[in-house]
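**Backbone shape codes:**
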Amino acid sequence: MTRKEMEDPTEVEIELKRRLGQLTDHLIQKQAQVEALSSEKATIAFRIEAVSRLLEENKSVMNSSNLESGKWAISDSKLRPMFEDKIRAGRKHLGSLVQQLDAIFLAGVVFLRRNPTAKLWCLVYLLCLHVWVIYILMAPSQSSNEGRSGAVFSLENLNNTAGV
């Protein structure tokens, strides 16, 4: 081969190099697809295994339940301590909430007992609140063909007059 033949490739060689480049790119693309699909397959297999484990555990729970009679008993599965802990924590939170609300209302009662003017203003406020609620609920709707209650219409009037 002469130097000129090596420097100037023929059309067939150019076409072969182009085709080789295309096939190489295609191969790399297919390898990336295979890797993505295999990782997706592994993820799905892991999820299936986790769900099947949960189903097996729940099957033992459901076997001991009697849903039609309204009684549901947790068997001696791994879920029993978890349910008991959740129920215990819920009772604890509810109990502390009730105690806090009780303390707030007791402080309010003590304040109202010691201050007769506060008692009077509280009574006036409650009376006005009840009159307003009765007015809202009993107010006739001007557009009776729409079937809306007086409360909805009154609230719309309030919004319209407030410029909202």
